[in-house]
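Let's sit down with a protein and look at its sequence and fold side by side. Please make up or recall a protein chain and show it to me in full. Label the sequence line and the structure token line clearly, so we can match residues to local backbone shapes. Go ahead whenever you are ready, and we will take it from there.
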Amino acid sequence: MRHADHVGLLAPGIRADEGGTWADLGAGAGAFTLALADLIGPHGLIHAIDRDRGALAELRASAVSSIPMAEIRTQVGDFTQRLELHDLDGV
């Protein structure tokens, strides 16, 4: 799938440029994280969580080349365990 395909899958459920604080659980290399970032705009924040450090490093590298977009914070973690994420607008 291309980036535009990922954006198209998420777009019906998200108002463009709404910002807010979101989480991508099992973010991997960030295909849907980057799509969400494009949709919510530069005033948004996404917590990208994955167990794979290498995938999160790839996500960070991709995010650098995709500016302007929402702020993306990566975190190594397992979403089957308790995570300290508060006041989310969406997952």
Notes: The chain is about 35% helix and 20% strand. The chain has one domain: 3-76. The chain has a mean pLDDT of 91.
